[in-house]
Queue: 3 jobs
Job 1
Amino acid sequence: MKVSIIGSGYVGSVSAACFAELGHEVICIDVDEEKVKMINAGKAPIWEEGLDGLLQKHSQKTLIATSDYEYAVANSDLSFICVGTPSGEDGGIDLSIVKAASASLGAAIGKKEGYHVVVVKSTVVPETTEKVVLPIVEEFSGKKAGRDFGVAMNPEFLREGKAVYDFMHPDKIVVGAIDERSGFAVAELYRGLDCTVTRTNPRTAEMIKYVNNSFLATKISFANEVGNICKQLGIDTYEVMDAVGTDFRIERRFLNCGAGFGGSCFPKDVRALIGKAKGMGYEPQLLDSVVAVNERQPLRMVELLQRKLGHINGKRIAVLGLAFKNDTDDIRESRSIPVIAELLRLEAIVTAYDPMAAGNMKRIFGNITYCSTSSEALSGADGCLVMTEWEEFGKLDREFEGMKEKIVIDGRHLLKPEKLTARIDYEGICW
Ligand SMILES: NC(=O)c1ccc[n+]([C@@H]2O[C@H](COP(=O)([O-])OP(=O)(O)OC[C@H]3O[C@@H](n4cnc5c(N)ncnc54)[C@H](O)[C@@H]3O)[C@@H](O)[C@H]2O)c1
Ligand SMILES: O=c1ccn([C@@H]2O[C@H](COP(=O)(O)OP(=O)(O)O[C@H]3O[C@H](CO)[C@@H](O)[C@H](O)[C@H]3O)[C@@H](O)[C@H]2O)c(=O)[nH]1
């Protein structure tokens, strides 16, 4: 089939490369000319395991990129909207990018002869596909949905760092369409992938995505709440969760307590669902608490450090990990951000290290020292905060010997102090 993908970020570029791998002809559309050039040169516009290889394989053969909507729509049967849906100022969803992309897509569909399918892949709150995207495409195309063009919602569940694998090995594919023809066309694109396919209406498909993310975020905040209580009682919360997680109704994964959840999805998606609920007059108390626990959790790292050091003012603090999780350079809503902000507010001297994400963090904090190794960040430090679950941090040992005061607060349950040669003053955030 012939597909165009609007937006070449994490979701768009991975979907494009994977659809090409599945044998489809793909045209990427992005307003960012740099990304267009990179994709046409067979280079990934973001860091994601396996993405470069797929783009090298398919670029200029069955995959090309352009900023020209008209060309892309004329030469494809379906267009996926994969643009960002950030939080607005009130925490609710900001649909301005989706609206702009829908208008450009509508104008291009207006100039095309024949049927075209509009597919929303961006994470959007229930009713957006039918009440926002569909009318904009109708307005700008002058055509009628369901008759001249189809509309579907197909949420994406990939994880950053494992995006290509997740796309090719999904546990479910959800297709919500306004008509049978477009629903069938979208489902056909995934033919060959072995998983459950849920065919439904657009608003249910939209809700499935939010419930998926909100439930996982709730598990993490629950684990953090339990962890904070366990710590006061001197109970190992990881031992508790290992046992509780054997219950198949609960499941062990996503019950790791720590510095909280970050990333481009969980925080903003929980806030968006809260915003949607409140907009309808419903107060979602549980989801409000999920956010509140997650906001407080990273600051516990600084509180624990402060308790050990007495005061933080003028102390040198090594922050290990800037990405929101391991295996990505993405720092969006990383728990390191509120921690560094708090350290700076308390007038600490911050030295930071991350294997991949320092370049991105420099755009937020220009006034801290970025180091090229953990050793360099730790050298002469009074305290250390482990913020991201990078594998290499779990292997640190003698590097701690370079610290002045060997105080280490672990926010990701990575270190085993009893097994280290270095004598460190270790404390887990909730163990
Ligand atoms: N990142 C993830 O892991 C993930 C996973 C599942 C779902 N999602 C959802 O997918 C959507 C996209 O997320 P992302 O992380 O890929 O975003 P992103 O910010 O990485 O990428 C968006 C891309 O859209 C481009 N763009 C902006 N305006 C445009 C326009 N008018 N026309 C064409 N291109 C335009 C940008 O230049 C950018 O390349 C969001 O709704 C997000 O919630 C993200
Ligand atoms: O037990 C856990 C598991 C995760 N995290 C944190 O949770 C965040 C998110 O982790 P993860 O889900 O692995 O990353 P994302 O790439 O943000 O993926 C989530 O968000 C995507 C965007 O919607 C969805 O597509 C994915 O299914 C969903 O897992 C990270 O900060 C992790 O450190 C914890 O604190 N404890």
Note: The radius of gyration is 23 Å.
Job 2
Amino acid sequence: MLRRSASTTSIRHVSKETLTILLILSIRRFGTPVIKSLNTFIHNNSLVTYVIGPTIFPVVGNLVNVWLSLKRFKCHHRVWQNWAKKYGKILGLRLGLVDVVIVFGKKYIKEVLARDVFDGRPDGYFYTMRSFGKKIGIVFSDGTTWTKTRRAVLKHLRNFGYGSRSMENNICEEVKAIVDLRKLDAGRPVVVNHVFDVAIVNIMWKLVAGKRYDLKDNKLKHICDLITKSFQLVDMSGGILTFLPFLRHIMPDFIGYSELKLIHHNIYTFIQETINEHRATLDVSKPRDLIDAFLIDIMQQKEDSFTEEELQVICRDLLEAGVETVSNTAAFMLLHIVRNPDVQKQLQDEIDSAIELSRYPTLGDRSRMIYTEAVILETLRISSVAAVGIPHMAREDARLGDYVIRKGTFLLLAIHDLHNGAQWKNPQEFNPARFITTEGNLIQSDMLMPFGTGKRRCIGEGLARSELFLFLTYILQSFNLKIPNGDPIPSTEPVDGVSLSAKEFRVIFEPRR
Ligand code: HEM
């Protein structure tokens, strides 16, 4: 848990009277009952107290407050935002049995992302449940397992074309398929929230498993639906399964444990089948993709080689990390475009002048398409789907600002708040021009960090940005997007979850020529 350092000077012996005065002061200052003040104690020769946050109750901690506030604010990130106004930029909560700190503002967010001591991942049940009860894979592992896995994954992905021209070709192949499909239902309303899902999996799966699925493939659509469901069952803090994990034995259906268990089972069945197909046709002298490369590594049985369970979790991480984030961002991007016809017009003008009619867009066009890039940045800002990033964990007791954060505390980063706070002019307005200088150059703001920064920075940033650019330009080169007659203007209000998503909305794809 987080504690406030009341003094940086060395205080080995604090008299009872001094403690009483401090106790009274803290009650008056924070307006909270005795529980918080009792937490005053000596740490590394400094007098420290628990960080400011809502009153903590036994066993449930702040869970009841969260539950009540959610009724009003709908999304977790808004609840944290509201409390931060009252308690400050380093907000301390106890959620069930777990200490959680939510960090606000560029200065503290950057500090957390920059320091090794904060680069752990939480041990909570929700996170380890998806990886056979272990801290393995890339997204939710830490320490040497994480460094080893991240290095190996990046090496193998690059060997099979990650970040190269062949990956661009894969994205183009997928977006052409999307455009062809939309031409078939042109003029009719389409629910667009998940139109990119299968294409996004295909782009990653080509590198991971050397495989492509038809955009209408039911099996893959089902896997994508399961991922969406699992992302909507909890928020990024890990939910009740992390905070009161024993409840899974008492009310497994009510807290979503049974459903999540089934989802994990189905996703791993799909991954295991793919790995088995690879093993049956493996040629050790000619690895075809990331799965082959890891299988060869496993067969060689080196001291630090990976296990098959690790390979399964790596595949799952790559499958999930990219799908919901990019798909939800792309859906929000279309949503902002149909809400703002002037933005759509400017985008199409830029596409038409930068790209000859006879050809499709390429990533090489990006440097000349400043407005398009600004629309992508503005979407990543205003609809930050990774609202609190991916939780970090303090690996040791460590100081942050005026506080000491105890080993094991979860840290959530208020990225959505950073992107939508008062430091932006009219933050609620979708205005790509805010990212363009008067000379017409793109502004790279250091207040925009949708992919995090530092050692744990998202490994899919380049891919995500390329996908968003090609999705957007291909679609607007071919279609005008319209809200169907009679449908309401789609709401920008997000649906809560591990990744924020847009509420269901429909769009008509009207062919341009
Ligand atoms: C718009 C799309 C995306 C957004 C907004 C996004 C955002 C993020 C964020 C905020 C983090 C956490 C950084 C941290 O812990 O400090 C992250 C991590 C990660 N992302 Fe993404 N991401 C996106 C797309 C992708 C894609 C396409 C991939 C596919 C390769 C991917 C793979 C990962 C992985 C593997 C990690 C874990 C890195 C680690 O823990 O070392 N992401 N992402």
Note: The chain has a mean pLDDT of 88.
Job 3
Amino acid sequence: MKLTTAKRIFVAGHRGMVGSAVCRLLDQRKLEQRKSDGVEVLTASRSELDLTDSASTLSYFQKHRPDVVIFAAAKVGGIVANKTYPVEFLSDNILMAISAIRAAHQTDVGRFLFLGSTCIYPRDCQQPIQEESLLTGPLEPTNEAYALAKISGLKLCQYYRSQYGSMFHSAMPTNLYGPGDNYHPEHSHVLPALIRRFHEAKLSGAPSVTIWGTGSPRREFLYVEDLADALLHLCELDDPPDWVNVGTGIDSTILEVSQMVAKTVGYEGKVETDPSRPDGTPVKCTDATRLHATGWKHQVSLAEGLQRTYQSFLNETQSEQLRSV
Ligand SMILES: NC(=O)C1=CN([C@@H]2O[C@H](COP(=O)(O)OP(=O)(O)OC[C@H]3O[C@@H](n4cnc5c(N)ncnc54)[C@H](OP(=O)(O)O)[C@@H]3O)[C@@H](O)[C@H]2O)C=CC1
Ligand SMILES: C[C@H]1O[C@H](OP(=O)(O)OP(=O)(O)OC[C@H]2O[C@@H](n3cnc4c(=O)[nH]c(N)nc43)[C@H](O)[C@@H]2O)[C@@H](O)[C@@H](O)C1=O
């Protein structure tokens, strides 16, 4: 089953940054026009469907019978949220993955695309990170819980595919950013945290902004609308990889990235570091060879993506829709 032949497409986590970008892209591609042929994009808020509840998840799948599932629901957060709440990051994410993947099998879903993260790879694995590095060494302690849940989801998809022939496969996105991100000062990822902090410093005229850690870790960033495009592309492949990195192959230090954010926001003060805060993985950059071999490459540079994200941050702040949870 391919996306373009599906009648019912379930986007799990449609209110999140990734799920909402996938829904916007489906809409742009006029899948809505196929409504006359009975094509539907299915969504369910958490109050309608708690995906950690396997019985409710199975009944939802039995009732709505999706053909294709893009699974962008998860408990998500930055380095401090992951480090502080390992119980929830492991248990919620593993329950969601197992409930949904099993329900998909039990209701004959034609394609299931699971989303993991590049934090599944060993902390000190060879760079750039190839898919083959999975399970070759210890995980980064700050996100071990989340990574274990994501590895389980990826492996469960792979096992259903090999044991039952199900078209279940996974994408491992690198660090993401873009419209609809979470701007919580402590729990968010680095880019939304810094956009907010530099913006507030500009407004208050603060002489300096402090970033966490030493500023030396290297990270790769992908604009969420590029990710949405990659996910739809993967859903069209006849024989997709069991799991594939989705990234740009380009990384920068956190200090360099913070200077880019300052420039985007128009902040002219100093940038200071706080080494008492965790650095996490020293380097995390994907090898995008497997992805490129499927015929997909990112389009949006970090400088351009930051401009677009800052604009959406300003719009979200003005309309009081800023997510900060
Ligand atoms: N953001 C990033 O940098 C990266 C994200 N990813 C992966 O991409 C996917 C999407 O992440 P992102 O969009 O950033 O995350 P968000 O936090 O923005 O969105 C997550 C979505 O999952 C929903 N959700 C959480 N728990 C439940 C539950 N128990 N039942 C039903 N729905 C639930 C949330 O619902 P509600 O709106 O009600 O809270 C929300 O809509 C995740 O799998 C994540 O692991 C991978 C790499 C990097
Ligand atoms: C996507 C990925 O995201 C998480 O891993 P992470 O890559 O470490 O994510 P992060 O965005 O929170 O931090 C990146 C770097 O940036 C530095 N940093 C500076 N200043 C701020 C700051 O103000 N906030 C944050 N969060 N980080 C900051 C921070 O110290 C670190 O060195 C995983 O837990 C897991 O969720 C996962 O898969």
Note: The chain has a mean pLDDT of 96.
